[in-house]
Write a structure and sequence with these properties.
The protein contains three helices and five strands. The chain has helices at about 1-10, 40-60, 100-120, and strands spanning about 15-25, 30-35, 70-75, 75-85, 90-95.
C-alpha cells in the first residue's frame, strides 16, 4: 500500500491535478488524494467504477477489445479514468490547463503498480 500512497501523492503534487483516486471495480475507495475539498472522493470513485463498467460492456458488445482510458471533458477541467486490471479503477480530476499528454503517460506507467498493489490487499 505504501507504493500506492506514494504514487497518489506524486499525482496529487502534479500541477493541475485536483484529485487522484483508486477504487475497486465496485466503487469503493481504496486510496485517494485531493487538493480541493469540494470533490468527494467517494462520489468520484463510485461514478468512475460505474463508467468503466459501462465502457467495458460497450467495448465488448462492439467487439473492440478492452477499455484503455477514458477522458471526460467537463466545464471546469477533465476527468481521466483508466481501468487498472480487473480489480481497480484509477481516476484523476485535472484542470483544463494541465498537460494531458503527461497525465495520460503517467497513468499508463502506473497502471501496473496499481494492479499489483490492489491484488496484494
Amino acid at each position: 500500500m505504501a507504493d500506492l500512497d506514494q504514487m497518489l501523492d506524486t499525482f496529487a503534487g502534479t500541477e493541475g491535478v485536483q484529485a487522484a483516486v483508486v477504487t475497486s471495480r465496485d466503487g469503493l475507495v481504496i486510496c485517494g488524494r485531493q487538493n480541493q475539498e469540494s470533490d468527494s472522493l467517494e462520489a468520484v470513485g463510485a461514478m468512475s467504477a460505474s463508467l468503466v463498467s459501462t465502457l467495458d460492456a460497450m467495448a465488448s458488445d462492439l467487439g473492440r477489445g478492452a477499455v484503455g482510458q477514458a477522458i471526460i471533458e467537463l466545464e471546469d477541467g477533465l476527468a481521466v479514468v483508466q481501468p487498472a486490471g480487473s480489480l481497480a479503477v484509477l481516476t484523476l480530476l485535472v484542470g483544463s490547463s494541465v498537460n494531458l499528454g503527461r497525465v495520460r503517460l503517467a497513468l499508463r506507467k502506473n497502471e501496473l503498480l496499481v494492479r499489483e498493489a490492489v491484488a496484494n490487499l
